[in-house]
Design brief:
The chain is mainly alpha-helical. The protein has 2 domains: 152 residues, GROEL, domain 1 (Orthogonal Bundle), CATH 1.10.560; 48 residues. It has 8 helices and 5 strands. The protein has a 3-stranded antiparallel sheet with strand order 2-3-5. The protein has a two-stranded antiparallel ribbon with strand order 1-4. Helix 2 packs antiparallel against helix 5. The longest helix is centred in the middle third of the chain and has 22 residues. This is T-complex protein 1 subunit delta.
């Protein structure tokens, strides 16, 4: 019943588009659907997802069967790892999430939701007859302006400012399951990172150098 409904929705989408539109619009719609799947897990009040692996295929993704394997998380990268995406455009969102996780270790859900929103905007602009090249050039200009505004809003941060660093860590922990213990965990996390940071290159931190010991 569930797969039949997904197939019907897929057919309705394809029938509503001209063949010339499918090449551009269908990949956009698939990517937006993937972003929408994790949209509600974003932010400090984001909901956790219970991911159970099963043999289930839709137009946008496929989940492999693994009975008894249940994951509860609100981390976008973890959720997307459970999906075997079928379309190259949708797979790019997974790669985007992986790159974000490697580069900063956070913001995996945000970057996918943001990308999905931009792709959804692209779809609406294409529906109005705006050429893809015009949309691409406009997005590049908007990105450049956004970076300029962020630079103007930014404030310098010293690694010796423990109070400010702890506040930043607390903000990140507030969206996790351990949020009720963020006040106790934030100083521990900050101290652990400062102990392994390279003074000559403070922007590069190897988190593998931090040993995590779990105690009950």
């Amino acid at each position: 019943m569930r797969m039949h409904r997904e197939k019907k929705i897929s057919m309705m989408i394809e029938e509503s588009l001209r063949p010339s539109d499918l090449v551009i619009l269908l990949p956009l719609k698939q990517s937006v659907a993937v972003a929408d799947a994790i949209r509600t897990s974003l932010g400090p009040k984001g909901m956790d997802k219970m991911v159970t692996l099963a043999t289930y295929t839709t137009t946008f993704f496929q989940i492999q069967e693994a009975k008894g394997d249940v994951t509860i998380t609100n981390d976008g990268a973890t959720i997307l790892k459970q999906m075997k995406l079928l379309h190259p455009a949708a797979k790019m969102l997974v790669e985007l999430s992986k790159a974000q996780d490697i580069e900063t270790g956070d913001g995996t859900t945000t970057v996918v939701v943001l990308a999905g929103s931009l792709l959804d905007a692209c779809s609406k602009l294409l529906d109005k007859g705006i050429h893809p090249t015009t949309i691409s050039d406009s997005f590049l200009k908007a990105a450049s302006e956004a970076c300029r505004i962020i630079e103007d809003m930014s404030v310098p941060l010293e690694l010796s400012d423990m109070q400010q660093l702890t506040k930043i860590a607390t903000t990140s922990l507030n969206s996790k399951i351990v949020s009720q213990h963020s006040d106790a965990l934030s100083p521990i996390a900050v101290k652990a990172v400062l102990d392994v940071v390279d003074p000559d290159d403070p922007h590069s931190v190897t988190l593998d150098d931090i040993r995590v010991v779990k105690k009950l």
